[in-house]
Amino acid sequence: MKLRPLYDRILVKRVEAENKTASGLIIPDAAKEKPLEAEVVAVGSGRITKDGKTREMSLKVGDHILFGKYTGDEIKLDGTEHIILREEDVLAVVER
Predict the structure, then answer these.
(1) Would you say domain 9-15+34-94 falls under CATH 2.30.33.40?
(2) Residue 11 to residue 4: CA distance in whole angstroms
(3) pLDDT for 51-83, tens place per residue?
(4) For residues 12 and 38, is the Cβ–Cβ distance under 8 A?
(5) Do 43 and 59 contact (CB within 8 A), yes or no?
(6) The pTM is what?
(7) Rounded distance, CA 58 to CA 55, Å?
(8) Are the beta carbons of 3 and 11 closer than 8 angstroms?
(9) What are the structural domain ranges in the chain?
(10) How does pLDDT run across 7-34, given as a tens digit for each residue?
(11) Are 92 and 59 in contact (CB under 8 A)?
């Protein structure tokens, strides 16, 4: 199924969490938190300003982003968890 977010919303898929710490300790599943990093899967057309113009999105498909712990709405598409966020909920773009 294909999904196109509206306006200033983006569709993201969480990046897999690390299984080991930096020092090499294995993290058990019960202690893992959901990662706050995700990959952008789809973007909307942009925010509509007060004067009726559309402001382009600064994110693009394939970007890796960081977002807040309690932001967005979780949905399932074809058995995979995704999150719909507003562009303003994105904290940073991860550049590698």
Answers:
(1) yes
(2) 8
(3) 888 888 888 888 898 888 888 888 888 888 889
(4) yes
(5) yes
(6) 0.76
(7) 9
(8) yes
(9) 9-15+34-94
(10) 888 999 887 766 666 666 666 656 556 6
(11) no
Contact 41, 65 (CB under 8 A): no
Question: What is Dmax (Cα atoms) for the chain?
Answer: 54
Report how far residue 94's alpha carbon sits from residue 96's, in angstroms, rounded to the nearest whole number. Answer: 6
DSSP E strands, 1-96: 9-14, 37-43, 47-48, 54-55, 64-67, 73-77, 80-86, 90-94
Q: Which two tokens stand for residue 50?
A: 């007060």
Q: Kindly state the DSSP code that residue 10 receives in the 8-state scheme.
A: E
Q: Is residue 27 within 8 Å of 33, Cβ to Cβ? A: no
Which residues face 12 on adjacent strands?
40, 83
How far, in Å, CA of 85 to CA of 8, rounded?
A: 9
